[in-house]
Design goal:
The chain has five helices and seven strands. The protein is α/β, with parallel strands linked by helices and 175 residues long.
């Protein structure tokens, strides 16, 4: 047999991290937060910031959905999201909101520099990112929606965007 399915025991952690962090703003659904932890672990995201009304570990639904990734992905909670974004900007992060807006660009056209630090801001499915975060961000990107719905689940959208960004950053940043 040539194409044999591998089991979990064959996986080895690469230790690779990208200069990409996720900022979850007002995400109140524990399974979405758990999915963000799992995405961050899978894609080599350096840190997950939880802010505003976002649900935080410890939480049974987060742990179940994340498959315990909250143990491996660094995270912190910040009540004041704007202060956190200002701090990240001061540390040299480019603030990128994932939101459909009047100025957003197609994710396919977003190309970070290989050495650039990115903070991807994600909003709740109901309210989105919010105007105050759009105003302070450096860039807003969206995933084109081809069907009837104008958006998708925040974790699904995060996975697409984070994968796109890490592939662009792959050109020269990994440690």
């Amino acid at each position: 047999m040539k194409n044999v399915q591998l089991d979990h025991a064959t996986h080895q952690n690469s230790g690779r991290k990208y200069p990409l962090c996720l900022l979850a703003y007002n995400i109140r659904v524990p399974t979405n937060i758990g999915s963000l932890f799992r995405i961050a672990d899978a894609l080599g995201v350096e840190k997950l910031f939880l802010s505003g009304g976002s649900i935080c570990p410890p939480n049974t639904k987060i742990r179940k959905t994340s498959r315990a990734a909250e143990k491996y992905v660094p995270y912190s909670y910040h009540e004041n999201t704007l202060d956190l974004v200002k701090q990240l900007k001061g540390e040299g992060y480019r603030i990128v909101c994932l939101e459909i807006s009047s100025d957003s660009v197609d994710l396919a056209n977003f190309s970070p520099r290989p050495d650039e630090k990115i903070c991807l801001v994600l909003g709740s499915e109901k309210e989105g990112v919010g105007q105050e975060l759009l105003d302070i961000s450096d860039t807003t990107v969206h995933i084109p929606m081809l069907g009837n719905n104008s958006s998708m689940n925040v974790a699904s959208a995060c996975a697409i965007a984070a994968y796109h960004i890490t592939q662009k950053l792959e050109l020269g940043c990994c440690h």
